[in-house]
Design goal:
This protein has 435 residues and is of the alpha+beta class. It has seven helices and 20 strands. It has a six-stranded antiparallel barrel. Strands 7-8-9-12-11-10 form a six-stranded antiparallel beta barrel. The chain starts with 7 loop residues before the first helix and ends in a 7-residue tail after the last helix. GO terms for molecular function: serine-type endopeptidase activity. Keywords: Disulfide bond, Glycoprotein, Hydrolase, Immunity, Innate immunity, Protease, Secreted, Serine protease, Signal.
């Protein structure tokens, strides 16, 4: 016998299932309705809601192991603009232009192995525990940077919480100034990431100088030839400095900060004769305090970043190097540079008789925008900076070149930072376990 009606409990179950089904269908329909509809990005520009796999810029971000916090905020913002979220199985984002992700060439990236070994066995006495000068010795591998080459078509779930917090929350923020591109003193102190390196060479009565760039509260990036074969006590680092002659007062006023080197990490394939892989990290003995006068520059984590460094791209450098013939600058000075296309760069390397095929994509060639203006003696290790989206990115590290940009027909050479990003991040990750 069939009952004429369902029990009340059974009716409630069916009603509940019905409403859950309706909510699901509405959600699906709503999500489908949002695809290809107009949206507004956080910066006020217009875009369209598309599936995340079709937005090349966001795909690039989500395939990285490391993001700046402002980049994770950017991902969340484009999700919110289309009323989607990172837990969705098929997220929709507000994309400024729905382009397929381009394929990038294979480069000699100088990627370090995931493990770093110590080569030096001579302990250096410090005020803390004995510290070794660590130089990685394993061979680097020629690897293709992880690059998305196809548009994703399957369901994708974003997990922003898996990005390790190894980079500073803020970096490279542009400060108001009229002196961004001039060959002039940085008296507005807009380049607060510049680090003055005071170097005492063995058997030398005079102190040398190099420049570094702060990329982290514990790390400074510079040229390998500045620190190669030095002991830790031979290097002092000064943050927030403008005038060398006022260093003592600057320290007393707590505008400047002094640190010592706790570890020197020279690229494992550095060649001092050919200046191959002329890049190094200095880990300081104590974390630097971020202030208005001391902050880090941004690293070029975007694998497409180099595409913006086309021929004649405008960049800048700064330092305390030679200003007039035979005279070192007391003040931090800025110089505007143009990037030379890679073919011409290769010809310049041949003029130096240092050409090596593996150098072609790891070296950046620059010339002064104005004749006679360039980086000079004492500027080794200085940053090559590019202003992009209101932030300064560290795109090069000054290595070698002609005498102070004089009319020699030769360009200055810098290490292209994007080719060493994985090597840098590999070493930054080691700080998670402490000092």
């Amino acid at each position: 016998m069939v009952p004429s009606s369902l029990p009340k409990t059974s009716q409630m179950v069916h009603i509940t299932k019905f409403w859950w089904l309706m909510l699901f269908l509405v959600g699906v329909a709503f999500g489908q309705r949002r695809v290809n509809q107009a949206c507004i990005l956080a910066n006020g520009s217009s875009g369209r809601c598309i599936r995340i796999g079709e937005c090349s810029k966001i795909v690039e971000l989500t395939t990285r192991n490391v993001l700046y916090s402002w980049e994770t905020q950017q991902i969340r913002a484009v999700l919110r603009a289309c009323e989607s979220d990172e837990s969705s199985s098929d997220p929709i984002v507000c994309c400024e232009s729905a382009q397929s992700t381009p394929t990038r060439r294979t480069l000699n990236s100088g990627v370090a192995p995931t493990t770093t070994t110590a080569a030096s066995t001579t302990p250096i006495a410090t005020t803390r525990r004995p510290t070794r000068v660590r130089v990685t010795t394993q061979r680097s591998t020629t690897a293709r940077r992880r690059t998305p080459t196809t548009v994703r078509t399957r369901s994708t779930t974003i997990r922003l919480d898996h990005f390790k917090d190894v980079l500073p929350a803020r970096c490279g923020e542009q400060r108001p100034s009229w002196n961004v591109w001039s060959d002039i003193e940085d008296d507005d102190n807009i380049h607060v990431w510049a680090v003055y390196l005071e170097i005492q060479r063995p058997k030398s009565t005079t102190k040398g100088r190099c420049v570094g760039t702060m990329i982290h509260e514990r790390y400074v990036l510079t040229a390998a030839h500045c620190v190669h074969n030095l002991k830790l006590e031979n290097i002092k680092l000064y943050f927030g400095l403008f005038l060398i002659s006022t260093l003592a007062q600057c320290l007393a006023d707590r505008v400047c900060q002094e640190r010592r080197a706790a570890e020197l990490i020279v690229h494992q394939d550095y060649n001092s004769h050919a200046r191959l892989n002329d890049i190094a990290l200095i880990r300081v003995n104590e974390a630097v305090q971020f202030t208005d006068d001391v902050r880090p520059a941004c690293l070029p984590l975007d694998y497409l970043f180099d595409e913006s460094l086309a021929n004649d791209a405008r960049v800048l450098s700064l330092g305390w190097g030679e200003y007039q013939q035979g005279t070192m600058s007391d003040s931090k000075r800025i110089v505007a540079l143009n990037v030379i296309e890679q073919e011409e760069c290769g010809e310049q390397l041949r003029k130096w008789q240092r050409f090596n095929a593996s150098m072609l994509f790891s070296v950046m060639c620059t010339v002064g925008v104005q004749a006679g203006q360039d980086v000079c003696q004492g500027d080794s290790g200085a940053p090559i900076l590019q202003l992009k989206d209101g932030r300064f990115f560290l795109v090069g590290v000054v290595s070698f070149g002609p005498k102070c940009g004089m009319s020699t027909g030769k360009a200055g050479m810098s290490m292209r930072v994007s080719e060493y990003t994985n090597w840098i991040l590999t070493n930054l990750k080691r700080i998670d376990g402490g000092s």
